[in-house]
Amino acid sequence: MSESWRIAIVSMVQPVVERIEPVLRALGHEPVGVVTARLDRVGPAGPMLANETVPPGIDLLFAADKGRVEPLLRTLEPDLTICWGFPWKLPQAALDVARLGSINLHPGLLPRHRGPIPLSWALRDGDGSFGVTWHRMDAELDTGGLLAQGSVTIDDDDVEIVQIGPKLGAEAFRLLPGVLERVAAGDPGDVQDETLTTWAGHFGEDDYARIDWSQPARRIHDQVRAWHLTMGLSGIVAPVTELDGERLHVTRTSLRDPGDGARRVECGDGPLWIVASTSL
């Protein structure tokens, strides 16, 4: 690809911005600015982007609401907008600012697990892997044409986004050169098969919040870490149980005995260890 593009990044995730900037430069493009969301509180994934966390020479623009994204993008005069880790569904007017359109990185295998918490649903559904999808953006959520997909194996100890994020990022960056080639060619992407669509919406307290110890240990382990990866966005912080007359939020489990006084509980097919919990 010989043409150099001005690229705007739309993100709330500092490690994403930090890592994608040199990748884009190595591919011959110029990241010109980051549009992020101004929130009233620190986001669940950590502090918002700030001057000291954005690479030098890149503008950092804070949008007060989704309606402000379009005019802020226009000031950057991008050829392409890349969205990765942003909390708002963007209006079509914002997506149309860049002459080559807008693309997004979704951490799921679209059209499976459209929605806000696909990593949690991959665990809840027992998928065995986390998905990565680059796709064109349109005014609906996660419905645009598919540009590239990959996956990474879910390991037993995958709990924190700081563990999972780098693996997803490596796969996303591996796919990115081919994605940009399709964008350069004006490829609209592959149409999503709507019959395969599932929704990765926020968990409800009634459908996934209580631990059933008759279930297999791995299923309960996945339930606990699926709640953990919602980062508090689904109403409660962890599934609930009662053990020895005490009600608990179970926040961390292990399929192996980690020592250090972890509490062993018998499940339907064997033991699981409660590594961390809080009393209710």
The end-to-end distance, rounded to whole angstroms, is: 57 Å
Instruction: Provide the CATH architecture of the largest domain.
Output: 3-Layer(aba) Sandwich
Q: How many strands?
A: 11
Tally of alpha and pi helices:
6
- 3D shape: elongated
Low-confidence stretches: none
Element order: H for helix, E for strand: EHEEHEHEHEEHHEEEE
Strand order of the largest sheet: 3-2-1-4-5-6-7
Give average pLDDT, whole number: 93
Largest sheet: 7 strands, mixed
What name does CATH use for the topology of the largest domain?
Answer: Rossmann fold
* Radius of gyration computed on alpha carbons: 20 Å
Proportion of residues in extended strands:
15-25%
CATH superfamily of the largest domain: Formyl transferase, N-terminal domain
Please give the domain count.
2
The secondary structure category is alpha/beta
